[in-house]
């Protein structure tokens, strides 16, 4: 690794390599460092209205829904999401479009000149870089997806126009705690006094509501203030004067209902025809995304129990149509693999397990042990990589089988790259 500082004429790859190489090994929690750098280069003095989006699952899909509904009304929108699947550029969108490399290079160069001796993590660089780009474009609205937790996440340095919580479940237990109450308290750290806070979780832990009341946030609660109900092919949403029944979109309907509530609270909800059109055309990469028709292959980033339950419901609809379900899983070492696989074992007819590369990737062996701890499945094959697994599985796949490739953003990226080849 080299610590040679790139310049404004360097490539984006050079900059990303540099950001990884200077990532501090040990770094204190808190927002002081990130806020200091942001203030040094004037990133927090902005006219854009910022909507902070936190939660265990559904941040990206909720952001995509909000983005579509705002763009449909002529507003300019900047969206920040992480991680990316294939290219770093996916993390920042202006009006729904990725940007050329040079915009990211300019932002990183500005940060490097303004941070002085203050150390930053890779994610902190990315977050501040996104804020620099949004300020450059002077967008009307910024949709800022929170990374890990909320209270000490780099995104929490901003002053939000509204804060959103999508769902609450156990993930990153080593940082956020091993109960939903602890996780909820951390995520509630993105709330602000006298500021809208919309919570879409269907069973909100009391710690989140208690904290919101303590700081006098203007909370709007799922199940109390707005009602979401899921039906076979539609979902219903009720909030104040609104009572709509809409076709299910390609994203979880619960997240769509949360997005609708956010815009209604902010008096930004478009008319019903616009809502229907936006929902009908929503596509989010890596969320039960179809990669192939013959053979039938889908991929999903599901990597915690809650997202696995949503994936199970999707697969159940194919099972009900007479399909057999084959699953190719590859996961990171720090995930609760047994809990994730347990949500799917009753649906899967045949398992394929693959090792995942990189410093955080886990082996197919460990994945097999996790599967055996929750299932008596005897049809299990292991592979050295997702690519190798697909090269063996796909030529043999029959017409009555759906293959789901899941477990991580890295897993999905490997699958997408395989099909691109």
TrEMBL record:
It holds the Pfam family Mur_ligase_M. Residues 53-195 form the Mur ligase central domain. GO terms for molecular function: dihydrofolate synthase activity; tetrahydrofolylpolyglutamate synthase activity. Pathway: Cofactor biosynthesis; tetrahydrofolylpolyglutamate biosynthesis; Cofactor biosynthesis; tetrahydrofolate biosynthesis; 7,8-dihydrofolate from 2-amino-4-hydroxy-6-hydroxymethyl-7,8-dihydropteridine diphosphate and 4-aminobenzoate: step 2/2. Its EC number is 6.3.2.12, 6.3.2.17. It catalyses: (6R)-5,10-methylenetetrahydrofolyl-(gamma-L-Glu)(n) + L-glutamate + ATP = (6R)-5,10-methylenetetrahydrofolyl-(gamma-L-Glu)(n+1) + ADP + phosphate + H(+); (6S)-5,6,7,8-tetrahydrofolyl-(gamma-L-Glu)(n) + L-glutamate + ATP = (6S)-5,6,7,8-tetrahydrofolyl-(gamma-L-Glu)(n+1) + ADP + phosphate + H(+); 7,8-dihydropteroate + L-glutamate + ATP = 7,8-dihydrofolate + ADP + phosphate + H(+); 10-formyltetrahydrofolyl-(gamma-L-Glu)(n) + L-glutamate + ATP = 10-formyltetrahydrofolyl-(gamma-L-Glu)(n+1) + ADP + phosphate + H(+). Residues 286-409 form the Mur ligase C-terminal domain. Belongs to the folylpolyglutamate synthase family. NCBIfam families: folC, PRK10846.1. Functions in two distinct reactions of the de novo folate biosynthetic pathway. Catalyzes the addition of a glutamate residue to dihydropteroate (7,8-dihydropteroate or H2Pte) to form dihydrofolate (7,8-dihydrofolate monoglutamate or H2Pte-Glu). Also catalyzes successive additions of L-glutamate to tetrahydrofolate or 10-formyltetrahydrofolate or 5,10-methylenetetrahydrofolate, leading to folylpolyglutamate derivatives. This is Dihydrofolate synthase/folylpolyglutamate synthase. It comes from Pseudoalteromonas marina. The lineage of its organism: Bacteria, Pseudomonadati, Pseudomonadota, Gammaproteobacteria, Alteromonadales. The gene is folC.
């Amino acid at each position: 690794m080299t610590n040679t500082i790139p310049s404004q004429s360097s490539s984006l790859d050079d900059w990303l390599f540099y950001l990884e190489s200077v990532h501090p090994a040990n770094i204190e929690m808190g927002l002081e460092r990130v806020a200091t750098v942001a203030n040094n280069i004037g990133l927090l003095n902005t006219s854009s209205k910022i909507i902070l989006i936190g939660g265990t699952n559904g941040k990206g899909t909720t952001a995509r829904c909000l983005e579509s509904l705002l763009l449909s009304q002529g507003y300019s929108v900047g969206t920040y999401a992480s991680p990316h699947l294939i290219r770093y550029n996916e993390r920042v969108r202006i009006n729904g479009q990725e940007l050329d490399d040079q915009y990211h290079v300019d932002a990183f160069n500005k940060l490097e000149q303004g941070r002085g001796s203050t150390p930053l993590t890779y994610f902190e660089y990315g977050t501040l870089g996104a804020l620099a780009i949004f300020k450059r474009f002077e967008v009307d609205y910024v949709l800022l997806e929170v990374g890990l937790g909320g209270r000490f996440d780099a995104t929490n340095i901003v002053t939000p126009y509204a804060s959103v919580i999508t769902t609450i479940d156990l993930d990153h237990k080593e940082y956020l705690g091993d109960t939903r109450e602890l996780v909820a308290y951390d995520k509630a750290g993105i709330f602000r006094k006298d500021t809208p806070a919309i919570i879409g979780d269907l069973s909100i832990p009391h710690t989140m509501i208690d904290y919101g009341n303590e700081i006098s946030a203007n909370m709007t609660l799922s199940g109390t203030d707005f009602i979401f109900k899921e039906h076979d092919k539609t979902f219903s949403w009720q909030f104040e004067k609104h009572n709509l029944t809409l076709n299910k979109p390609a994203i979880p309907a619960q997240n769509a209902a949360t997005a609708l509530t956010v815009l209604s609270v902010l008096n930004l909800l478009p008319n019903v025809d616009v809502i229907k059109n936006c929902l009908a055309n929503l596509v989010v990469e890596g969320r039960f995304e179809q990669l192939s028709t013959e053979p039938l292959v889908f991929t999903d980033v599901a990597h915690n129990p809650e997202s696995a339950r949503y994936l199970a419901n999707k697969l159940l609809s194919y099972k009900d149509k007479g399909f057999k379900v084959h699953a190719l899983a590859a996961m990171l070492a720090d995930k609760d693999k047994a809990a994730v696989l347990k949500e799917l074992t009753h649906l899967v007819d045949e398992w394929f397990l693959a090792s995942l590369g990189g410093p955080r990737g886990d082996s197919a062996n460990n994945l097999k042990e996790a599967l055996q701890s929750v299932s008596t499945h005897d049809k299990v094959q292991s592979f050295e990589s997702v690519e190798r697994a697909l090269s063996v599985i796909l030529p043999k796949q029959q017409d009555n089988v759906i293959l789901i490739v899941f477990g991580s953003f890295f897993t999905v990226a490997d699958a997408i790259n395989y099909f691109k080849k």
